[in-house]
Amino acid sequence: GNKVYENIIVSRPAEGVALITLNRPKALNALSSPLFKELNEATEELDKDDSVGALVLTGSDRAFAAGADIKEMKDKTFVDVYQNKFLEDWTKITGLRKPIIAAVSGYALGGGCELALMCDIILASPTAVFGQPEINLGVIPGGGGTQRLIHAIGKSRTMELTLTGRNFTAAEAEAWGVVSRVVPEGEGKVVEEAVKMASVIASKSKVAVQAGKEAVNAAYEMTLAEGLRFERRLFHGLFATQDQKEGMSAFAEKRKPTWNHS
Ligand code: HXC
Questions:
Q1: Nearest C-alpha to atom 15 of ligand 1 is from which residue?
Q2: What burial class does residue 193 get, using C-beta atoms within 10 Å of its C-beta: 0-12 exposed, 13-18 middle, 19+ buried?
Q3: Distance from the CA of 186 to the center of ligand 1, in angstroms?
Q4: 114: annotated active-site residue
Q5: Which residues line ligand 1 (CB under 6 A)?
């Protein structure tokens, strides 16, 4: 069975798919330290679990997550946050080998928006509301919002959102490329679609999926020349796998491949 947590729920809605549901409904899934600790623990465990091919992260219909927990942060001093490296453990999710899809419905604000941006793919419900409202609290995004939004939507929009704190809609998020698509309206629909997508990913060769994720992410860190070289080396490396032999033989023999993930 799945481990029981206080602030999240872990379930297996389909073969190869693990679903993590943020579960602090009374606080609109505000991302408290205990919640993040559990999220990191669960994702780390699922990343190692051979029966899992892809993860889905979601909240409730009303809120993916309304941000870092303001009540927890409010009285912290500079020395508190600096010495304890406040928020440093937030980036762990970006180090997962397996793909993680954010299924966003309702509020994804501040740290909630940043958490979605840390995922590999974002699907949004038409009700999704994104934003970086930190400026209204006298601070700025601290979980990568400014940096990750720049890559997705460019400087002018990132600057506008960061400095005005205004929210943006699911339609804007889609038009700007923040999300891969907005799913049709309906309760739970965005999770259903994300689980379907995760099932498709989980049906592929795990080693190829890992390489694909690593290659795409390299584009964030490397120059084009370095990134192309990195991609080609990973591609070359896959010729050492049984899944490459199986995948290409299956095509030539007009049958479906059976991956053994090695
Ligand atoms: C703590 C929060 C919270 C948050 C909501 N709640 N957001 N608690 N931290 N981020 C709590 C409320 O206090 C309230 O608790 C309950 O959830 C329901 O919220 P309401 O405000 O009553 O709901 P509503 O009127 O529908 O308004 C929804 C909302 C609003 C627009 C999303 O809650 C809101 O503006 N929240 C804050 C959004 C925000 O500023 N996020 C950025 C945080 S800073 P009670 O007990 O009163 O019922 C941040 C920094 C990240 O994320 C930096 C590093 C990652």
A1: 27
A2: buried
A3: 24
A4: yes
A5: 27-28, 30, 66-71, 87, 90, 107, 109-111, 114, 133-134, 137, 141-143
The distance from CA 60 to its chain's CA centroid, rounded to whole angstroms, is 16
Mean pLDDT, the chain, rounded, equals 97
Tell me which residue of 115, 226, 217, 124 sits closest to 171, measured CA to CA.
124
What's phi and psi for 16, nearest 5 deg? 80, 0
What residue's CA is closest to ligand 1, atom 9?
69
Taking only the tens place, the pLDDT of each residue in 17-31 is: 999 999 999 999 999
pLDDT in tens, 91-119: 999 999 999 999 999 999 999 999 999 99
According to DSSP, the β-strands at 63-65 and 107-109 are parallel
Kindly provide the ipTM of the predicted complex, given to two decimals: 0.98
Q: Which letter, b or e, does each residue of 15-41 get, where b requires 16 or more Cβ atoms within 10 Å of its Cβ? A: ebbbbbbbebeebbbbbbbebbebbee
- Tell me if 94 sits within 8 A of 73, measured CB to CB: no
Looking at the DSSP bridge assignments, the partners of residue 101 are 56, 121
Which atom of ligand 1 is the closest one to the Cα of 109?
Answer: 41
